């Protein structure tokens, strides 16, 4: 029955899609317009295929057609029937069609939840009845080479006037008799992935001058995969997938790694019973699962092979300066199909990037490129592909004494308000942000206090440690930080006039402030004075001094319990650097030895002692003194940059803060790697 459609469809049919006015649940019916035929002065017959009835009762079905592809046009016509249709339903329009004019049609099904529409089809009247297809008879299961029977009316007498294509591939018409002809499914053709999932096949007919296009649901035979003993595959081997009914002109094999990255594997053999592919992917697991698309449908195949581990030869090692490294890895089972299918992993460095520059099945050349981050003294290079990390590693030893071990925000260092100091095998870094305690090169620092109140914020020009406290001064103001209570305390100002190059140290219950210079590196008689603060009574007293002598530097250190000072005595014509020992009885300094004329002004906050060696690190001209005979050796391969006071000592390692790009970086300095001259 034909009736005029007076309702508006919610959304226009666009391209090959129809209105999506309703929210279509996943359980709604799925179907398509399969055939438009019989377009003549008698009308037109529409046919539709249903390949999923859905979960709701179908109340009505039919077709909507009209001259406007936007079928919400009030002039659109509707053909309808009540109840549940057959899998293939047909209705014929007998009016409202003009010869030679294009029309558009969709099928629809109505349920309690709403109306669901098919895709849109276009047709034009041909002006004559011509061949009319009745049905296509197919076996319950079909495969390449099987026979389809076409039944219909008005067949030509000459079989050569019949042409059939299945999915765009020419099919052979093998016989014609009465009202039917038989067609052999091509031995191979390409499958449309979307239609293949639902068993829909596009069949195009040309009978004499009339052309028809129909979708037919065929139950195409599914492939079978044979899983035998799991073979071990090297990257120089082929991956072999065995089975039955695997034939497909466009068969594809893919690998999806653990992160969802998909790689298409190169297919070498597409056979009925065997598929062979190359392992041209970066595999991230020992037993990869493959995705095989056969005749438009994807299948996941597991346990078809396992990867042979990649091995590195033992005892491969070299040294580098921590900057660039060029190394050659020798081993077994690298992937020779592309450098992107190999992966190396650095253990002990986030600072370097590893770039593969050359590769083969048993050799790879790697360049380590510096970037940002930290690294350790020993960096291990391993392959990491397939079954995982290689058991053995290439060992890189960093020969530079200084390595970056921790990173902090750029503002962690606050210029004049920052300083480093050591106490009892721990390092302390102090800034206006507070007091931070370091116990090792890898553990994060512990914030003991901070930030400092404004009254206690001043340049920390001098720092000393002793008897459970840290002491800070700018040359006048004085502050104590108690490491038990983690609280700061303001102390009486320093009484001396000299405010630079002071001797500043703690010994036997007293804090000493000695000698030094006025601001601007000037001297006057007050620069020869010595003072000490009783840490119990907090009272300053003045000590006897070398009258008329001026000292700068005044860096104190202890060796085997004895307190020494490295200082430069300023003479009228020259400066002499000397070592002096502190006499606890007389509270005075006793000359030990002149080190060298002129001397080196040491600007670090501390002098570092390891065993008998006393290390003086500087922006340049760093050196070491042997305390058994006070001989000196210059250090050729370490500099501290422009911030020498940002350091401390933890056991037998030295540490120094510096800026790198937009971060504050803590460097570990190992004296075992010093080069002397």
How does this structure look, described?
Residues 1-19 form the signal peptide. Keywords: Signal. This is IPT/TIG domain-containing protein. It comes from Algoriphagus boseongensis. With 677 residues, this protein is mainly beta. It has five domains: 2-124, Immunoglobulins (Immunoglobulin-like), CATH 2.60.40.10; 132-217, Immunoglobulins (Immunoglobulin-like, Sandwich); 224-307, Sandwich (Immunoglobulin-like), CATH 2.60.40.10; 311-399, Sandwich (Immunoglobulin-like); 406-673, Kelch-type beta propeller (Neuraminidase, 6 Propeller), CATH 2.120.10.80. Helix content is 1%, strand content 51%. The protein has one helix and 59 strands. The chain has a seven-stranded antiparallel beta sheet with strand order 10-11-14-13-12-15-16. Strands 1, 4, 5, 7, 8 and 9 form a six-stranded antiparallel beta sheet that branches. Strands 28, 30, 33, 34 and 35 form a five-stranded mixed beta sheet that branches. A hairpin with a 2-residue loop joins β2 and β3. It is elongated. The N and C termini lie far apart (107 Å). Residues 1-26 have low confidence and may be disordered.
């Amino acid at each position: 029955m034909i009736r005029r459609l007076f309702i508006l469809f919610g959304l226009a049919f666009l391209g090959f899609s129809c209105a999506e006015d309703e929210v279509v649940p996943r359980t709604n019916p799925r179907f398509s317009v399969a055939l438009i035929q019989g377009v003549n002065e008698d009308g037109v017959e529409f046919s539709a295929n249903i390949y999923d009835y859905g979960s709701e009762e179908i109340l009505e079905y039919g077709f909507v057609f009209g001259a406007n592809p936007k079928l919400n046009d009030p002039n659109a016509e509707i053909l309808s029937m009540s109840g549940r249709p057959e899998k293939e339903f047909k209705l014929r329009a007998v009016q409202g069609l003009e010869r030679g004019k294009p029309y558009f049609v969709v099928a629809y099904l109505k349920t309690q939840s709403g109306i669901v529409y098919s895709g849109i089809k276009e047709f034009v009247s041909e002006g004559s009845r011509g061949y009319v297809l009745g049905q296509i008879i197919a076996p319950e299961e079909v495969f390449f080479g099987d026979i389809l029977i076409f039944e219909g009316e008005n067949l030509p007498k000459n079989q050569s006037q019949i042409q059939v294509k299945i999915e765009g591939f020419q099919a052979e018409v093998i016989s014609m008799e009465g009202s039917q002809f038989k067609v052999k499914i091509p031995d191979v053709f390409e499958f449309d992935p979307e239609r293949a999932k639902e068993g829909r096949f596009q069949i195009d007919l040309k009978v004499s001058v009339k052309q028809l296009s129909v979708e037919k649901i065929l139950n195409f035979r599914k492939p079978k995969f044979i899983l035998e003993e799991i073979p071990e595959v090297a990257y120089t081997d082929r991956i072999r997938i065995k089975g039955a009914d695997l034939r497909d002109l466009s068969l594809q094999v893919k690998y999806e790694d653990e992160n969802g990255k998909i790689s298409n594997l190169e297919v070498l053999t597409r056979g009925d019973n065997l598929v062979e592919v190359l392992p041209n992917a970066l595999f991230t697991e020992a037993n990869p699962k493959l995705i095989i698309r056969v005749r438009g449908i994807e299948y996941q195949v597991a346990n078809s092979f396992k990867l042979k581990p990649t091995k590195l030869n033992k005892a491969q090692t070299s040294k580098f300066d921590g900057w660039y490294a060029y190394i050659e890895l020798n081993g077994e089972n690298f992937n020779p199909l592309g450098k992107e299918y190999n992966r190396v992993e650095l253990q002990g460095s986030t600072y370097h990037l590893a770039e593969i520059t050359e590769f083969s099945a048993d050799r790879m050349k790697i360049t380590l490129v510096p970037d940002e981050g930290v690294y350790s003294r020993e960096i291990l290079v391993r392959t990491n592909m397939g079954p995982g990390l290689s058991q053995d590693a290439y060992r890189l030893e960093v020969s530079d004494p200084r390595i970056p071990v921790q990173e902090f925000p750029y503002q962690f260092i606050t210029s004049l308000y920052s300083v480093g100091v050591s106490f009892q095998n721990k390092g302390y870094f102090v800034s206006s942000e507070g007091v931070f305690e370091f116990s090792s090169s890898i553990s994060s620092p512990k914030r003991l206090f901070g930030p400092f109140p404004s009254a206690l914020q001043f340049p920390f020009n001098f720092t000393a440690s002793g008897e459970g406290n840290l002491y800070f001064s700018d040359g006048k103001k004085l502050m104590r930080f108690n490491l038990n209570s983690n609280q700061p305390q303001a102390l009486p100002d320093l009484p001396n006039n000299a405010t630079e190059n002071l001797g500043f140290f703690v010994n036997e219950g007293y804090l000493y402030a000695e000698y030094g210079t006025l601001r601007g590196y000037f001297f006057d008689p007050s620069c020869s004075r010595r003072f000490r603060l009783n840490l119990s009574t907090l009272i300053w007293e003045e000590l006897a001094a070398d009258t008329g002598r001026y000292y700068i530097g005044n860096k104190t250190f202890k060796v085997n319990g004895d307190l020494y000072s490295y200082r430069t005595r300023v003479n009228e014509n020259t400066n002499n650097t000397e070592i002096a020992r502190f006499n606890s009885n007389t509270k005075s300094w006793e000359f030990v030895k002149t080190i060298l004329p002129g001397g080196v002004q040491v600007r670090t906050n501390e002098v570092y002692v390891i065993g008998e060696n006393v290390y003086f690190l500087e922006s340049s001209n760093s050196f070491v003194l042997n305390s058994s005979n006070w001989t000196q050796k210059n250090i050729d391969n370490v500099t501290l940059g422009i911030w020498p006071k940002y350091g401390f000592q933890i056991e037998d390692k030295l540490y120094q803060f510096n800026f790198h790009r937009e971060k504050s970086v803590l460097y570990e300095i190992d004296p075992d790697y010093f080069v002397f001259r």
